[in-house]
Amino acid sequence: MNPILEALIKSVAVLAVALAGFAYMTWVERKFISRLQARIGPNRAGPFGLLQPVADGIKLIFKESITPANVDVLVYFLAPIVAVVPALVLFAVIPFGSDPAFQLASNINVGALYVMAVLGVGIYGMILAGWSSNNKYALLGGLRASAQVISYELGLGLAVLSVIMMASSASLNDIVAYQQPGNILGWLIFRQPIAAVIFAITALAELARAPFDLVEAEQELTAGFMTEYGGMKFALFYMSEYVKMIGMSALFVTFFLGGWSGPFVNEAPALSLVYFAIKVLACLLVMVWVRATLPRFRYDKLMGFGWKVLLPLGLLNVVVTALLIVAGVPGYK
Amino acid sequence: MMDKFVAVVTKIPVGFATVLKTFFRKPVTIQYPEQTKPMSARFRGRHHLKRYDDGLEKCIGCALCAAACPADAIYVEAAENTNEQRYSPGERYAKTYEINMLRCIFCGYCEDACPTNAIVLEPMEFPTGYTRDSMIYVKDMLLEAPPPGAPATPQQTPPGKYDRAILPFPPITD
Fold first, then answer.
1. Measured between alpha carbons, how far is residue B162 from residues A87, B89, B158, B171 in Å?
2. What pLDDT sits at residue A182?
3. A217-245 pLDDT, tens per residue?
């Protein structure tokens, strides 16, 4: 098949799955967090509230598109797009399954770097939205977003660095292959537990999700950087958050949970997709669980935690990993 | 420092376990329009105008309820009973009886003021409406249906039987 056509079809498929995943992730989150709080959650639109995302989407599409006075119009309209595009292109390098047919560009040798770069760009959407809205809540939200992401991207990078050192490759396919598909003890979460914990925490901060959702802390900043957004422009920010959630979970699975690996993958490659989906869903549910459990950090504590705990811990982990690899400790060769 | 760190870190799984335990609990949600909360028998919901067993209205149009109402939500206009057109025992009955449910504070003072126990606030009914006009409840909406077998009002009654609005020892029905 024509490689361009093939890439096009796969891209469209990945985008469709990501957007459907976004819609139904909102439903999963609302349902799961309701049960964690002894509530029922959405159950009016369709059976078990399954049509709720559809109803929400229709509502948001038909909302009036308001441009507040004195906003920087170009940046104001650009910001949601800048937020949502990096979230979507994140999926390009993630190996969804064992077969090359289930991958877009997982073989590029800078996969992990690409991920870091795309995540870094993603935050511009929040900053630009906060700046262009001409609203002090939005500005403070954008300010917090930039400070938070600068602090936590370092920890995230160091966690990913440990993984790259272990696999001696930045290609996500190599990282999955290094985790010996088929053997659960090969998963890097068992050999790099500290990196996994740092990655999980910094991923939550990067996503600006509870307990790090200071960017949109309702009680202080109304809706933070998206205060002045409504209708589909608001939906795009929402979409970027949830698509990034799915992307981050997929990265965590790829880096630490053996990617698509699982029993009988060699016999039936389609199974690898199922394993990957199950692992990603488990990570997403844990994120919701964290949101239901932990209160929001105070802002100075958030910065202090990033700089004074996660960064030194990440550095220490990198040094120890390097020493273990050089010393040739079994499992760290 | 280390003790504190250990104390904090060991508490984190406890918190997560507590939240997860809730997942296996029955939700406490009450699906309102289909299910309703059990309510006290003495709950003061919306007003009802009661009747005697023979179908006559208890309300005699004395407007003591209107006088007692702290929110000034009740309007009563009385008219004369005759033996041919009898609505209630005694001389007079309430020709107009209106309660503005938007003003009513459901304090129950009208119940206390009523000499014939005609007005009663009963549970499980909440006045709702889309317009202000629809929230003024008139007599037809407040008055209960006659008891089974009893005729509605006005009734034709024998002279002398219903001369008194209130019996010498008013029956306490509630």
1. 83, 5, 8, 15
2. 60
3. 667 777 777 787 877 888 888 888 899 89
Considering only CB atoms, which chain A residues are within 8 Å of B20?
36, 289
What predicted TM-score, i.e. pTM, was given to this entire model?
0.76
Report whether A193 contacts A146 (CB < 8 A): no
Number of alpha helices (DSSP H) and beta strands (DSSP E) in chain A: 13, 0
Least Cα distance to B174 among B126, B112, B124, B125 occurs for B112
Size of interface A-B (CB pairs under 8 A): 31
A219: exposed, middle or buried (Cβ count in 10 Å: 0-12, 13-18, 19+): exposed
Nearest partner of A36 among B9, B119, B106, B23, judged by Cα: B23
| CA atoms of A188 and A196, how far apart (whole Å) | 8
Token representation of residue A243: 């698509």
Nearest CA in chain A to B14: A293
Torsion of CA B116, B122, B128, B129, to 10 degrees: -30
Half-sphere exposure of A288 (CA within 13 A, CB side): 23
Q: Residue B80 forms beta bridges with which residues?
A: B92
Whether cis (ω within 30° of 0) applies to the bond prior to A211 is yes
Strands B47-49 and B136-137, how do they pair?
unpaired
State the DSSP string of B40-102. -TT---SEEE-B-TTS-BS-----HHHHH-TT--EEEEEEE--SSSBSSSSSEEEEEEEEETT
Question: What is the ipTM metric for this complex?
Answer: 0.72
The residue assigned the tokens 């003021």 is: B113
For residue A13, which amino acid is it?
A
Distances (CA, A) of A275 to A6, A172, A181, A267: 24, 17, 11, 14
**Separation of alpha carbons B113 and B116, rounded Å:** 9
Structural contact between residues A163 and A256, judged by C-beta atoms closer than 8 angstroms: yes
Half-sphere exposure of A78 (CA within 13 A, CB side): 10
Helices A231-256, A111-132: crossing angle, 10 deg rounding: 160
Low-confidence residues in chain A, pLDDT < 50: none
Interface check A36 vs B, CB under 8 A: yes
State whether the Cα torsion A288-A290-A296-A297 is positive or negative: negative
Helix, strand, coil percent values for chain A (each to nearest 5): 75, 0, 25
User: Strands across the sheet with B74-80, in order?
Assistant: B74-80, B92-100, B136-137
- Measure CA A303 to chain center: 20
Tokens, residue B118: 């005609």
Contacts of B22 in chain A (CB under 8 A): 35-38
